[in-house]
Amino acid sequence: MSTEAKSAMTEFTSNLRSVPRRMLESAFRSGKPNTDRTRSTFVFSNVFLHLHSVRTHRWSLRWTTTMGLGLATTAAFLITLFTGVLLMFYYKPYPDVAYQSIKDIHFVVPTGRFMRNIHRWAANVMVVTVILHMARAFYTASYRRPREFNWLVGMGLLAITLGLSFTGYLLPWDQLAYWAITIGANIAQSPREVTDALNLTDYFDPGGFQRSLLLGSEIVGEEALIRFYLLHVMILPLALVALMTIHFWRIRKDGGIARPADADARLEAPAGAVYPVFTQAPQKTYQLAAIVKGRTSAVERGPENTVPSMPHLFYAELAILMLTALVCVALSLVSDAPLKELANPSVPENPAKAPWYFLGLQELVAFSAFMGGIGVPSVVLIGLGLIPYLDREKAGTGEWFGGPGGARLVRRSLMVGFGASILIEAFVIRFGWIREWFPHVPQLVVTALNPGTLLTLVYGLYSVWLVKRYQSTRAGALGLFTCFLCGFLVLTVIGTYFRGPNWDFYWSPSLWPHH
Amino acid sequence: MNRNKILLLASSIGVLALLAAAAINENFLKDWRRIQSVGHSPDGAINVQLRQVVNPGLRTADRCTSCHVSMGPGEQEVTGHALFRKHPAVVHDPAQYGCTICHGGQGSATEKADAHGDVHFWPEPMIPLKSAQAGCGTCHIALHVPKADQLRAAQAVFERLDCRACHRVDGKGGTIRPDGGGMEGTDLTRSGVSGYDMGWYAKHVEKSAKAASGPWKTSWAAVNDEDLAAVAVFLASRNGAPKLMEAKATFFSYGCLGCHRVSGVGGDEGPDLTRAGEKDPGQADFSNVPEERGLNHWIAEHFRAPVALVTGSKMPAVAAPESDIAQLTTFVLSLRRRELPGIYSPKDRLEAVRFGKREFAGDGATLFGAFCAGCHGQDGMGRTAGDETFPAIANAEFQKLASDRFLTETIAKGRPGRRMPGWNKDGGLRPDEVAAIVRHLRVLSGVEARAAEDEWKASRDLRPAGRRLYAASCGGCHGADGQGNKGPALANAVLLDVATDGYLRDTITKGRPGSIMPAFGEPSPTHRTLAAADVEAVVAYIRSWQEKTKNEKKR
Q: What is the pTM of this model?
């Protein structure tokens, strides 16, 4: 009896002593990731890491392959998520009270101002990097089969990113927010420009519907604020996380980062310090996997140029995460997030400007609300979505500016893109447009024929010419994408720096008239 | 691989360094922390913490006391820094009311520039200290303020009678007492608000008679009725904000209300000023103001040169000494409003809003100064502003012609189509106030009111002749159809209604000295002389328009 009791006590104490070790073992079941096998299990037995493939091609880890732009976008999102949750503790989504709570966050909440700055800067960084990431994917022709669908998912992520940023804009309830959202709501209402011209608005009013869907009311008020708040803190982040998961998962399922067919041959031999490649025989055979249709990363290609994702890929990912954090934190220490006067519906901001990434659109909206806000963006989005299905060529996948024409074509397209947009803008600023010349011309004429549609037409014709000249859809796509990027840049810069009260052109804000 | 490791290490160190910098900045370098760290109370060093005055009723949460520690609740004894000055004794304890309700500024801020509101995007900067009493205007409306010279005269009488020997007023005086040291008389600083014993004079006389010696015997002398009236004016104007009183009195001397409306009373030529003190300096154009910032500077410069600051402004430059400009600026800064919960609504405001009590005193001089002087001049002798001439109304010649009815109706109904508004209908003045102005005009001109209306009527038969004479002698200035040109419109329903034939006859015959209207009854080289019959004909013709305007009205 006593020996039994004693042994039970011994067992208990030894169990107690081994609790930390057992706890660790039960959490990390495969042990230290120091062999090929344990490194693999480290990845695929972890719910967060298993979205990665266990081995990463060395081509993908070259800095020039992706420049870490997608990772930076993810990092920026994680930073906004973290700071955003902290801000939610203090933010109160009700008109006027919201403004006061931002003032409190700015002045008295411990680290509140810093967190808000980081949140704002990370959101801007995210918008920049997501656009650059898309450009990278495009210029390396990474959208091609089998990655067409992931390109579409990426477009969805771009839209949600802009949506998140835009909905966050209203929350401070200051003048900047109020009037930017008013502009946004008017853009949503812009189909009225067409229905009004056709005298249809009384029967069919998609513009008015969109606007009231967005605002929940006739005016930008408490309904709009709670709507934007809900979108900003719940609906859009959830959608973003869902799409991001798919996006990452598909990278793995589509064979990793796109690389040239001859990537293996072009890689130098791994440096001595790099972990050796495949030192252990597989425990499992992949008979079942072999009969599953479709591609996996290992099919058609030897594993010789892959390295374990743990730790090679994860070092890269953490490095990008910290680098992004560094950029956001540094910017936050230098520059405060803006907060203007309390929203005042009776004192319109002049000029009322949307967030910077929409100022290109606002520039087009100034010509025609419908074409600038709905028409041209729809054409661009449809064009972007169709690219992977139209360009079914093989040459140049995974190469920067890969495809017929290459970097030379892109350089020429830069000149066409910048040239055409600057010329048209200069013409409009100097001489005006149809409405100024013929005040009584029907609105539909202006809607159909305005600087925005003209620019789109020029870009379209140029890319059709490229398709013929190079006998390649990819060449046309390269030209068109470059042109639209240039147009976006030119219009955004003009909208941001050169437009003043009444959307008139000024060389600098110091020349703006008062009153 | 190694490059990624190095990048990870470098950026991690960078982030840590920046976070550390942010933490140091947040926890050690904030101004209010450094200021509080030198503070001492009798119990030793004070806690370094965020301090604020919260008043839910006024919806204020003012963190000003984070730096101005000794103005916070229960912190009066804190010393050690220049900022730890005690708040001067005021009616409203800042430890209870907070700071921004009176001073403006940004109460939620914890940094100097932001808190004082002298930053972009904060529409309510602090009221400058020299105009500090303008802050009273946020809640209070002072009642029955006389015009400036009356207030000054009343104050002079109060000083001359040496009331301050025993009474303290606005922080000065009250030094004599029977046994030396201490104050004998009551503090009269707020006598206009709290009221005072109306029978004070009789009691003073009585006490003086009873006293055998001491101040009651030596410092007291009888006061005549005129001085007593002045003392009453002075005491009624004491509400604890003497500088704001002076500013208001000055405002009521420049006739600004002739064009501007304040709290529902005044003209409509210029913008409504009821909340002019809340103007957002961020919306003001400072390019023609010598100082770069500060709403007070903008307002002062606007008085000096309105057109330079507001394009197309019709307001004439205010010809006033700089001391008056400063007072007018203080007054404009005081034009602000805050919606207050009932218990914070002051009595004066209630009396003004609910019972219609006036901000300006009800005597004719103040009313004339506040409403008429802007156009008709301080002396009532007319004024020329730009190419516009405003008629002289206080000259004896005119006052002799005009009956009380003529003056009253003219003020009450105005001259439709001209700058003169109808003060009863549109301007918001009451009949007794109009009557006070009429009485003041009689005083200004030194002419008694006419005993009775002139019953003389011009014969209707003379109209055709009058038509020819009018075209030859009058149409040039008054318009071919009496629509007015350089001279006022005569085909004006109100004028024709108010003016008797006798008034018209006398005006034509004797002219209007001080204006371009000549005396047609006197020989002159520049115009034709009209004989009595000619004048009657012209009057008959002018009168014919009355039927015309009446018919038009009917239609």
A: 0.84
